[in-house]
Amino acid sequence: MRKKILVIDDELTTCVLLENFLKNDYDVETANSAKEALVKLKELIPDVIISDIQMPHMNGFKLLEQIRLIGFLKHTPVVMLSGNKESSERIKCYRLGAQDYVSKPFNPEELREVIKKNLYPINYCRSW
Question: 97-114 b/e with 16+ CB inside 10 Å = b?
Fold first, then answer.
């Protein structure tokens, strides 16, 4: 069974880029706002969530807080995307429960490895 990824970003181009990049390996759903993502999360149980931070109406920090309050999503890996490279923002994400933080513009191959690391943490390293 293929793993599911939910991509949340108010920039349509980022959603399309990630969907096209990941669709051969995963089932990818997209949402263009935090509000739309919360609606989708009532029916969809993704294996990984990738979310932008800077979004109108509800930013990624508030969304992450809401995701962590949903019982069945409490332990779902969340990867945050941001154009801000400051470590204070990264630390805030980790404190709110994000597993990873990737700076924009990002290397799609790096994001692919971050996803694999979160989906298969024990098996990620091929040799010890």
Answer: ebbbbbbeebeeeebeeb
Residue pair 126/104 in contact (Cβ under 8 Å)? The answer is no
* Segments forming the whole domain that contains residue 32: 4-119
Residue 124 lies in a domain: no
Q: What is the pLDDT along the chain (128 residues), one digit of tens a residue?
A: 899 999 999 999 999 999 999 999 999 999 999 999 999 999 999 999 999 999 999 999 999 999 999 989 988 999 999 888 788 999 999 999 999 999 988 898 999 999 999 998 766 555 54
CA distance 8 to 36: 9
Task: Check if the beta carbon of residue 2 is closer than 8 Å to that of residue 29.
Answer: no
Q: Which residue has the tokens 């996803």?
A: 115
Is residue 9 situated within a structural domain?
yes
